[in-house]
Amino acid sequence: MDVLTENLRYLGHEVERISSAQKALDRIDDLVSAQLIVLDVIMSWPESRPLPEIGGSSTAGMEIMIEVRKRRTDLPIIVYSGTQDAALKAALQRDSSCSFISKWGGHELKEFVAIIQETLGLESKPGIPPPFIVHGHDEAAKLSLKNFLQNSLHFPEPIVLHEQPNLGRTIIEKFEAYATTSQLIFVLLTPDDIAAVGSDPEDAKCRSRQNVIFEMGFFVGSLGRKSGRVILLYKSPLELPNDIAGVIYIDISGGIEAVGEEIRKELAHVTS
């Protein structure tokens, strides 16, 4: 749900996650002022209500739906639940403003987002999803790039992996989850590590972080080297991997703003 929340925010929606049935009931007026509710069914039973003899926590979300319907019968509700209760699902189907998505249905994130957009009467926005920034230890370069993309080029807020919620996942699981949400990648190749023999020249002793090389390879493999969607930004002095020798990159040694037009030129090809 946190990942879904962030993706909807990237699309420009105002989104809030309420983490329990009781909190939802306490804020019922806020719920009914929304344009759409994504509702779970199986939650801890709200403390303020007597536990029914049948159903209990397996129907807690229905208490929220009942209160919402007392106030608004037309508010779109997407019930996203793992419930297998046939009677409950039949009841949901009788509500013309409600749709049911099973957690066992294997929907990808982008499919879920598309369902929400369609329910709101919106077409999926054309163009490119939020850009993904691959970076090492150069915080100044990362923040400068993020500011340029967001405030000068007016992209949605770029995805920076360490700023996203972990949700109990390993680093690679978290990376894979967010990597699939973007089709435009900026790779910051900055001199972060020293790894060379003493006889090597000075500019060969500086290398990018291993995670940067790994993630760059992932995106080049998944999006294609000739797609134009993986944009390499280079800061000297730096040794580049032999595998990408000859690939054109943008030199940001003088700062991001100094090469703004070069970045725009690359993006014009991608977005045309």
Topology:
Layout: H1 2-10, H2 21-26, H3 28-32, E1 37-39, H4 60-71, E2 77-81, H5 86-93, E3 98-102, H6 109-119, E4 132-134, H7 139-152, E5 159-160, H8 171-179, E6 185-189, E7 193-194, E8 206-207, H9 210-223, E9 230-234, E10 250-251, H10 260-271
Parallel strand pairs: 1-2, 2-3, 4-5, 4-6, 6-9, 9-10
Antiparallel strand pairs: 7-8
Structure description:
- The radius of gyration is 24 Å and the shape is elongated.
- The protein has 272 residues and is α/β, with parallel strands linked by helices.
- The chain contains ten helices and ten strands.
- Helices cover 37% and strands 12% of the residues.
- The mean pLDDT is 86.
- The two termini are 33 Å apart.
- It folds into two domains: 118 residues, Response regulator (Rossmann fold), CATH 3.40.50.2300; 140 residues, Toll/interleukin-1 receptor homology (TIR) domain (Rossmann fold, 3-Layer(aba) Sandwich), CATH 3.40.50.10140.
- The strands form three sheets. A five-stranded parallel sheet has the order 5-4-6-9-10, with helices on both faces. It has a three-stranded parallel sheet with strand order 1-2-3, with helices on one face. Strands 7-8 form a two-stranded antiparallel sheet.
